[in-house]
Amino acid sequence: MGSTFVDVDDCVLHVREDGPQDGPVLMFSNSLGTDLRIWDAVVEPLSTHWRCIRMDKRGHGLSALGKTPVTIERFAADVLGVLDRLGVTRAAMIGVSIGGLITQATYAARPTLFAGLMMCDTAARIGTAETWQQRIDMVGADGLGAMADNILERWFAPAFHRDRPVDLTGYRQMLTRTPADGYAAACAAIRDADLAPQASRIKVPCVVICGADDGATTPEVVSAFAASLPSARYVELPNVGHLPSIEAPHAVVSHLKTLLMEVTHG
Hints:
CATH architecture: 3-Layer(aba) Sandwich
Order of helices and strands: EEEHEHEHEHHHHHHEHEHH
Distance between the termini: 19 Å
CATH class: Alpha Beta
Shape: globular
Oligomer: single chain
Number of strands: 8
CATH topology: Rossmann fold
């Protein structure tokens, strides 16, 4: 239990486990420009019963970038490599933003592994190739610091900016300390990803969550994604932006527990 490092296809990945080793497994996947700590407030109440596994995706947190270019399928293969190394044969997976794309691709690669999925503030395709290329170019020219304020506006609801300035500074530091090459590689993976065909074949129950104040993946985009899934429940959280695990962890835990009871995953 705790933090460890796992080598998957010659790339060293940072992994953290919390909770009982014999508990039902929950696998978490992070958003762009963040690390596994964005799930802290969600994992804490769950880890009394569930085995919670988190990892920094390639190029983020303490994980190496490895070979580039990187695709969503490569990120998914990393998840499967970690789960295989840890001996996991059944899990539920939870992802936010690009982590939601990774969740879809991981399920598509090995659907029999998963009991259920939760996807937050995501879609089968996010943005356009042009907008992601512009962001890649900006990171290369100016760095993440020059983009941070605009990104944080989309990440968090107005109430968070008003009431939690210290936390806002902390998450700005998490963003700006993300390696620029890792951030750009993940942007390119999102740019090139269209998982609509895979999403339409998801058979397990899903919960799709969106913050009502999300400026990155809007409720219109996320609710349409949920409607495209064969078996999904859509939940919209008021006064929440792009990262509900930070702004509304209790709501995320509540809806996740309901899903886990529905699929009898612990």
